[in-house]
User: Which sequence fits this backbone?
C-alpha cells in the first residue's frame, strides 16, 4: 500500500472516529437532558405538594381562629352557595300558595350587643315578637338584655356560648360543655330553660371537622329543637348592603314560603339591620304576614337533619 493510500485510509479512520465521538456526545447530551428534566419534574411535584400543605395549614389556622371576624367571613363565603341551594330546596309542603297566610319568624343571631336595645325598641313600637339566638356574655348590659328579651315576650334561643367553631365543634364532649354553659347562664339570669338552638354557621356549616349528626343527636336527646333559616337578609356577609337592600333581600323570598325563618344579626356593626327593621316590619304587615316568635308550633326549618344524613 503506497503512502497516498495509507493517508487516505488514515483520514477515513479519523473521520469515522470523529463521527463516533459526535454521536456519543449527542447521546450523552440527550441522556443528560432527560435526567435533568426528570429531576426538575420531581422537584416541581414536591414543591406543589408542599404548597398544598401550606395552603391547608393556613386554612386550618384561619378556621381555628373562628369567633373572630375573619373566621366568620370565611365561613360565610364557604357556606353561602350551599345554604342558598338548601333554602331553594325547602319542603314542597312549605311552598306558599296564593291564598296562604305567610308566617314570618324574624331571628337575630350573635347578641346581645350595643344594638339589642334598639332592636327591642323597634319590635315594641310595632308590637312584634321575634327570636334571639344569643351567645354567652356575663357583663351587666348583656344580662339586662337577656332579661328584657324574656320580659317582652320574645323567644330566647341559644347560639352556643363562645361561637368559636374550633371549640364548639372540637368534639362531642366540647359541644356538650359549651351547650350546658350557655343554657345554664340563661337559666341563672332569666329563670327560663331555653329549648331552642341555632348552630354557629348553621347545621350545614363546612367548618366543623366533626360529624354534625353527633351534635344533632345530642340535642334531640336533650329535647332541644334547632332551627336554621330559609330566608336571609344578607347582613351576615361583607357585601355592605344598604338598609333598603336588606329589606328587598327578605321580601323577595318570604313570599315563597308559608313559613319563613329569617336570618338577621344583632351585632354592634350591624347598624343597617337596625335601620332596616321598621321598613321591613311595615312591608311584611302590608303583605298580611303574621310576625311570630319561634315556638313549639313553628314549622321546622333545618338544613340538615338525622333523616338526611
Assistant:
Amino acid at each position: 500500500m503506497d503512502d497516498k493510500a495509507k493517508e487516505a485510509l488514515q483520514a477515513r479512520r479519523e473521520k469515522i472516529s470523529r463521527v463516533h465521538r459526535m454521536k456519543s456526545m449527542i447521546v450523552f447530551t440527550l441522556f443528560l437532558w432527560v435526567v435533568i428534566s426528570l429531576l426538575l419534574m420531581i422537584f416541581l411535584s414536591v414543591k406543589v405538594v408542599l404548597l398544598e400543605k401550606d395552603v391547608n395549614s393556613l386554612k386550618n389556622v384561619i378556621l381555628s381562629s373562628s369567633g373572630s371576624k375573619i373566621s366568620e367571613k370565611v365561613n360565610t363565603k364557604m357556606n353561602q352557595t350551599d345554604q342558598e341551594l338548601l333554602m331553594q330546596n325547602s319542603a314542597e309542603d312549605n311552598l306558599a300558595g296564593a291564598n296562604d297566610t305567610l308566617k314570618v319568624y324574624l331571628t337575630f343571631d350573635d347578641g346581645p350587643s350595643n344594638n339589642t336595645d334598639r332592636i327591642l325598641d323597634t319590635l315594641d313600637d310595632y308590637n312584634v315578637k321575634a327570636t334571639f339566638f344569643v351567645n354567652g356574655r356575663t357583663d351587666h348590659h348583656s344580662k339586662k338584655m337577656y332579661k328584657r328579651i324574656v320580659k317582652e315576650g320574645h323567644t330566647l334561643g341559644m347560639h352556643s356560648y363562645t361561637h368559636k367553631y374550633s371549640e364548639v365543634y372540637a368534639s362531642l364532649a366540647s359541644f356538650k360543655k359549651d351547650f350546658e354553659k350557655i343554657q345554664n347562664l340563661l337559666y341563672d339570669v332569666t329563670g327560663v330553660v331555653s329549648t331552642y338552638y341555632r348552630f354557629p354557621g348553621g347545621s350545614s356549616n363546612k367548618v366543623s371537622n366533626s360529624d354534625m349528626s353527633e351534635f344533632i343527636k345530642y340535642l334531640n336527646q336533650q329535647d332541644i329543637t334547632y332551627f336554621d333559616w330559609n330566608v336571609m337578609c344578607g347582613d351576615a356577609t361583607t357585601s355592605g348592603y344598604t338598609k333598603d337592600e336588606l329589606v328587598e333581600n327578605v321580601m323577595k323570598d318570604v313570599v315563597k314560603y308559608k313559613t319563613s325563618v329569617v336570618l338577621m344579626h344583632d351585632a354592634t356593626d350591624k347598624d343597617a339591620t337596625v335601620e332596616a327593621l321598621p321598613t321591613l316590619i311595615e312591608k311584611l304587615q302590608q303583605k298580611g304576614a303574621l310576625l311570630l316568635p319561634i315556638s313549639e308550633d313553628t314549622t321546622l326549618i333545618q338544613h340538615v337533619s338525622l333523616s338526611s344524613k
